[in-house]
Automatic annotation (TrEMBL), chain A:
One of its GO terms (cellular component) is plasma membrane. This is ABC3 transporter permease C-terminal domain-containing protein. It is found in: Cell membrane. Belongs to the ABC-4 integral membrane protein family. The chain crosses the membrane at residues 20-43, 294-316, 336-363, 384-407. It comes from Planctopirus hydrillae. Keywords: Cell membrane, Membrane, Transmembrane, Transmembrane helix. Pfam families: FtsX.
UniProtKB/TrEMBL annotation, chain B:
This is ABC transporter ATP-binding protein. Residues 9-239 form the ABC transporter domain. It holds the Pfam family ABC_tran. Belongs to the ABC transporter superfamily. Macrolide exporter (TC 3.A.1.122) family. GO terms for cellular component: membrane protein complex; plasma membrane. InterPro entries: AAA+_ATPase (IPR003593), ABC_transporter-like_ATP-bd (IPR003439), ABC_transporter-like_CS (IPR017871), ABC_transpr_LolD-like (IPR015854), MacB-like_ATP-bd (IPR017911), P-loop_NTPase (IPR027417). GO terms for molecular function: ATP binding; ATP hydrolysis activity; transmembrane transporter activity. Signal peptide: none annotated. CDD domains: ABC_MJ0796_LolCDE_FtsE (cd03255). Gene3D superfamilies: P-loop containing nucleotide triphosphate hydrolases. Transmembrane segments: none annotated. It comes from Planctopirus hydrillae. Keywords: ATP-binding, Nucleotide-binding, Transport.
From TrEMBL, chain C:
It is found in: Cell membrane. This is ABC transporter permease. It holds the Pfam family FtsX. It comes from Planctopirus hydrillae. Keywords: Cell membrane, Membrane, Transmembrane, Transmembrane helix.
Length: 422, 240, 454
């Protein structure tokens, strides 16, 4: 048996000599690595969705100067073509238009609460399958896709159809096939009759709703016929248009075409990639994210290093005699150093790995994502890389925390120790 | 056995046995003895003879399997655990071989410790502590920590701590066992003085015949039984 | 979405001074009971902590970390709460068009404004009602960034008819400079051919933010904007005529300009908002009811201003909720560290425990002594953490406040460390100390005096 192997055995032995202390240190590590894993999850997800893609990009066209973006619906046709004029102009490969419709099942304003509330994307039904984030990536063989495709098919046939998110439908206490009337909150004096034709797959769209664009359009026309004047939002009923382009070059060309098109000047339209749009939105959370990255995570790691340093220094002090004996027996100082570092490392790696893996499993499979929503962004899943990060975090802090105690262990003066004992 | 008003300690047919695994170990076997008020008694005997067990029973640290220990008229084996603790504080002073002082506290604070359990004002405590330290002749060292004192000095602090509650009975377990002969002699002189000038009853366990010689009487234990009695230093004659 | 009911309960209890008072009372009486039971001198614990100062320091620093971080995080949430609480002036009524959930979505007919302003209940200064007519809008500004990039920032612009009246109604005063002119524009002295400059008065927080971005691009000064500074927006150059005094409200993050200039510029020619001042909160409630139910000339949705801003605290709750969870996890982690220290303390002092038991100290005395030691450790580390957290007081940070209706404001807030923050930090430290000390103290009881001394 090689010396390294024997040392490794010794490390394991020592780790289990005071199981209570090892357990407490490990539990402390688990708790603190958990926090770091959560912070990492948020930051990693944000990095991912704000990283510019190079191919198959989604663009968002919105009003240039103002928020909320409110464009006339007539813009859709031109924007869908990327304001292309000639044969040589670049055209988006797909598009989707969105209007936001907020409504309640309660006619009486005072009795409206969150449970009777609906937030709907008013859009082209067929685009649900080709342009909505995540839904456009469903495998055609999956049951989710088949169910959704069936719902979309029904929506195409039924102008009054509506697709609901599963938990929203539960809160409304409805089921597929039910009918209800929706009183709008943002489209004043518009109320619409609906029949539920299907649901979104579980996950990101649990609280979402979608119905047909032409249904809203007819309701606005009807308003004009009834009241003799256009609805106040008649010319502002398009909130944004999604475009899909194959490359970054195509994005730049489309953005230029739209910026220069005279028909999109009043109100003016801007085009940005979805990721840069999200990046701009996150600017509002800049300092919070800074705090999570540069205060919360480091403070957790520092606390962890302290906990480990404390525990290792206790065990080193209790074993001073033993280290002295080992020295007498011929162990080299570096071997004693390795022994102590190895102990800390072992606990750190095992606890860090366990914590990150458990967090991964619990958040992703137990909770269906981190229950901390930032604005309209989807709930975050713990990335697989978090397991690696958690393990390294445990290892790194363990090394950091055990360095000084390990040094004091290997520099034990044999003569001093024995003179104190006898 | 009839209790005499002058007996400080009466040990009446006391037996003590422990379980060690499946085996029953008899440490004390139907042992009886009396210690009159103001006597300095030494208990000797080889390791495992049961002398420390006997001391613990007398001091109320342990309960006999059968029989009764009466200290100053109080049958202590009938006291509850809580009452026994308070009874010990008021009636027994302990002196140990390794002094057992709290290392972080000064001599003064160590001596004061048992008084904290009694209803006393700070001023009363101060008076008692200073008196006790004065008796053991350590007034000038009262703010030193145990680590700063010699073994003999530490043992004197231990004795002051045993004295401070003014107990009738002092039990000492090998009080000179860890000391050189000069320091041991000082400690023994101190114990004798406590007996003679303060009329304390002292029960001391010892291995050291010289120590036992300073006692009024020496009892020898062997296998849980008393073997003979030796009175006074002058009657000491090769008991081995 | 987070469970709003639970959050509300937590928020309420966290914010309620009564809750804190109750905790302090509870903790105080707990400590008092411990001290009454205690017989082993506290000096004994202190001296022992000094003797093993390395472990004392290591475990106390873990407390310092946790409590310091908690203090900073709480200071942030405090800043958000202060913002949503101070933005509304007492007695103010916010009048929006019916159905508008947020100022940004509202649209009031200009023709109605005069009649609305002259309703009974609204205070007057001579003939002039204390009403501010405003057009609130969010504008997207392209901000140049290093390396030729640009980012887009959302500016909250409030077009005002009368800035002096607006300042009066909102309780905002100028810190430096002057209000923008009646025209709201001025010629560019550097370039007579250029379009006139748009005059603005800037909130202090916004001035900091803009200065920060200017610093990022020119790499030199990150100093906040001052009177005379310019920025570009909507193809125009804007000129700062005044900076508002910082109040900690959401107006700190706004840009105020002439309604007749910015309204048409962004296609919002109508007012979005009217803010009316009444005598007190009761009159404000009455006026609100009146506009919502009896007033028929226009369809309005009135709200007491302070309640309107209170509704924007949903984000606050979300963050508070997250902080509580994170603080709990960290506290648990830290407690394990203390537990290690205390277990070691117990095992190092087995003999002491034995002696104490021989002296007649009861089990409860020994239990209490060790628990007190752990609490002392916690208090020491916690106080240090509070001290470090105090440094965060006065930092500014940007954030977003929003309500459930979807309206949101991008704000600059001031981190606020108050007494409640410090006390709750210390309370958490004590709880950690208790958790960390209790089990080891119990383990000390399981030792028998004689076993320890033999």
């Amino acid at each position: 048996m090689g010396l390294t192997l024997r040392l490794a055995w010794l490390v394991l032995d020592n780790t289990f000599r005071n199981p209570l202390r090892t357990l407490l240190t490990a539990l402390g590590t688990v708790a603190l690595v958990l926090v770091v894993t959560l912070v990492y999850t948020v930051l990693d997800n944000l990095d991912r969705i704000t990283t510019e893609k190079s191919a198959n990009l989604k663009l968002i066209a919105t009003e240039k100067w103002q928020i909320p973006s409110q464009l006339p619906y007539r813009y859709v046709a031109g924007l869908a073509q990327g304001a292309a004029k000639s044969e040589t102009d670049t055209r988006p490969t797909d598009y989707m238009s969105w209007a936001f419709f907020l409504g309640s099942l309660e006619a009486d304003q005072s009795s409206r609460d969150f449970n009777s509330f609906i937030f709907a994307f008013v859009m082209e039904p067929e685009k649900v399958l080709t342009m909505m984030d995540e839904l456009d990536e469903l495998s055609p063989d999956s049951s989710d896709y088949k169910n959704l495709a069936a719902a979309v098919e029904k929506l195409k046939q039924n102008k009054q159809g509506i697709i609901l998110g599963q938990s929203r439908m539960k809160k409304l206490n409805k089921k597929v096939g039910d009918r209800f009337k929706l009183y709008s909150r943002n489209y004043k004096d518009i109320s619409l009759e609906f029949e539920i034709v299907g649901t979104f797959p579980q996950g990101r769209y649990d609280e979402s709703t979608t119905f047909r664009r032409d249904y809203l359009n007819s309701a606005l026309d009807q308003y004009q016929r009834d009241k003799g004047k256009a609805h106040p939002l008649a010319d502002k009923s398009l909130n944004l248009v999604w475009l899909r382009v194959p490359t970054r070059d195509a994005f730049n060309e489309v953005a230029n075409q739209i910026a220069e098109a005279p028909e999109f000047s009043a109100p003016a339209v801007k085009v940005e990639t979805a990721s840069s749009g999200i990046g701009n939105f996150l600017e509002g959370y800049r300092d919070l994210l800074w705090g999570a990255r540069f205060l919360l995570a480091p403070a957790c790691m520092a606390t962890l290093a302290l906990v480990i340093a404390n525990s290792i220094s206790i065990s080193v002090r209790e074993r001073q005699q033993e280290f002295a004996v080992m020295k007498v027996l011929g162990f080299q100082p570096y071997q004693i150093l390795l022994l102590v570092l190895g102990e800390a490392l072992f606990v750190g790696v095992v606890a860090g790995f366990f914590s990150a893996t458990a967090t991964y499993a619990f958040i992703n499979f137990g909770l269906g994502g981190l229950p901390f929503k930032i604005g309209f962004l989807p709930t975050f899943d713990v990335p697989v890389s978090a397991i690696l990060v958690g393990t390294f975090m445990g290892a790194g802090t363990a090394l950091l925390g055990s360095l000084i105690p390990a040094w004091s262990a290997c520099s034990v003066k044999v003569s001093e120790i024995f003179s104190r004992v006898t | 056995m009839v209790a005499s008003p002058t007996d400080c300690v009466i040990v009446d047919h006391v037996a003590k046995s422990f379980r060690r695994g499946s085996e029953e170990v008899h440490v004390l076997d139907e042992l009886s003895l009396r210690v009159p008020e103001g006597e300095f008694l030494a208990l000797m005997g080889p390791s495992g003879s049961g002398k420390t067990t006997l001391l613990n029973l007398i001091a109320g640290l342990d309960r006999p399997t059968s029989g009764e220990v009466t200290v100053r008229g109080e049958p202590i084996s009938r006291l509850s655990e809580g009452k026994l603790a308070l009874w010990r504080t008021r009636n027994i002073g302990f002196v140990f071989q390794f002094y057992h002082l709290l290392p972080v506290l000064s001599a003064y604070r160590n001596v004061e410790l048992p008084l904290l359990l009694l209803p006393m004002t700070a001023a009363q405590r101060r008076q008692q502590v200073e008196m006790a330290l004065n008796i053991v002749n350590l007034s000038d060292r009262m703010h030193h920590r145990p680590g700063q004192l010699s073994g003999g000095q530490q043992q004197r602090v231990g004795i002051a701590r045993a004295l401070v509650t003014d107990p009738a009975l002092i039990v000492a377990d090998e009080p000179t066992g860890d000391l050189d002969s000069k320091a041991a002699e000082e400690i023994l002189a101190l114990l004798v003085a406590l007996k003679s000038s303060l009329n304390k009853t002292i029960v001391m366990v010892t291995h050291d015949p010289k120590a036992a010689a300073r006692a009024d009487r020496t009892l020898h234990l062997e296998k849980g039984k008393l073997v003979d009695e030796v009175y006074g230093a002058h009657t000491f004659s090769g008991v081995h | 979405m987070i469970n709003t009911g639970l959050t509300f309960a937590i928020v309420d209890s966290w914010r309620l001074p009564a809750w804190l008072a109750f905790t302090v009372w509870g903790m105080g009486s707990f400590l008092a009971i411990l001290l009454v039971i205690n017989r082993v001198p506290v000096m004994y614990n202190v001296l022992n902590m000094v003797v093993r100062w390395r472990n004392t320091l290591l475990s106390a620093m873990a407390f310092t970390m946790v409590i310091g971080l908690l203090t900073v995080m709480q200071a942030f949430v405090n800043g958000m709460y202060r913002l949503t609480e101070t933005s509304g002036q007492p007695g103010n009524v916010l009048i929006l068009a019916e159905g508008a959930l947020d100022e940004a979505f509202s649209s009031l007919a200009m023709a109605d404004s005069n009649d609305i302003a002259n309703q009974p209940g609204i205070l007057k200064d001579g003939e002039q009602p204390l009403v501010s007519c405003e057009t609130y809008l969010l504008a997207a500004q392209s901000v140049p960034q290093p390396e030729g990039k640009t980012k887009r920032r959302f500016l909250q612009i409030r077009g005002l008819v009368d800035p002096v009246m607006a300042g009066r109604v909102h309780g905002m005063t100028l810190d430096s400079g002057e209000w923008f002119s009646e025209a709201g524009i001025r010629p560019d002295p550097d370039d007579v051919n250029a379009a006139p400059l748009v005059e603005v008065v800037m909130g202090a927080g916004m001035a900091t933010e803009m200065g920060r971005d200017r610093g990022a691009i020119d790499g030199r000064s990150r100093k906040e904007f001052v009177v005379g500074d310019r920025f570009e927006l909507n193809n125009r150059v804007w000129y700062v005529t005044g900076i508002l005094k910082r109040t900690g409200s959401s107006f700190d993050s706004e840009i105020w300009s002439k309604q007749s200039v910015v309204g048409p510029m962004f296609g919002k020619e109508r007012y979005t908002t009217m803010v009316a001042r009444t005598a007190d909160n009761a009159s404000a409630q009455k006026l609100k009811e009146f506009f919502n139910t009896e007033y028929t000339k226009a369809q309005l949705s009135a709200e007491v201003e302070s309640e309107y801003y209170k509704k924007l605290s949903q984000t606050n709750e979300q963050f508070l909720y997250a902080i509580i969870i994170v603080a709990c996890i960290m506290a648990i982690g830290g407690s394990f560290g203390v537990m290690n220290t205390m277990y070691a303390a117990v095992s190092q002092r087995i003999k002491d425990i034995g002696v104490l038991q021989l002296m007649g100290f009861k089990r409860r005395h020994i239990l209490v002594s060790f628990v007190l030691e752990s609490l002392l450790l916690a208090l020491f580390g916690g106080l240090l953490g509070c001290l470090i957290g105090l440094f965060a007081d006065g930092w500014t940070a940007n954030s977003v406040v929003s309500g459930s209706g979807g309206g949101g404001k991008s704000v600059v807030l001031e981190l606020t460390v108050d007494g409640a923050t410090l006390i709750s930090g210390l309370m958490l430290a004590m709880v950690m100390g208790f958790i960390g000390g209790f089990l080891p103290a119990i383990s000390a009881l399981r030792l028998r005096a004689l076993d320890a001394l033999r």
